[in-house]
Input
Amino acid sequence: MVRLMLWIFGAVLLSGIVHLSTVLAMPQTATQDAYSRLARLAPVNALTPLAAPTAADATMPFMDPAFAVAVCRYDLSAGTLKFVAPVSQAYTSVTFYTRNSVSYYAINDRAAGRRTIELDLMTLQQHAQLPPQEDVTNADRLIIESPTTTGLIVVRALAPEPGLMAMARRTVADARCRAEPLPQ
Output
């Protein structure tokens, strides 16, 4: 009886290790992650509005039909990125993701406290290369350090009623994401 219990314990332990290692390895081996899905739709360093999700089709899984969404695939290898997004009447959020879909920064209209969300996105090395007077962060300039050179910026604007969806779409369409060369 003890021998049978040891075999069962060993099998459960081994299956737990296999399950855990599979779950942890899955994000690294997935070929259809968000960045790959958006590669065919969104050019690099430009903001692209996404189509509204339907019951039969959605660009990304779990998209909320009450939000207008736009994405910017960025590449910081040639320089920094200037991002500007207007704030909608209801709610606006901007989320930054690495190439592997890890969220590293988010801001919404309440935290911005102004009518636009403006920021500069750069790597740690690019931030270190800024001249001393350029490194001063004030209320007009927010500097975000990206842990990777490539990733995604997702802008979402809420349409609290279906009739306000056009306003939410205009908000995300007016956002700008453009590359800027490093200052010399």
About this structure: The longest helix spans residues 2-29.
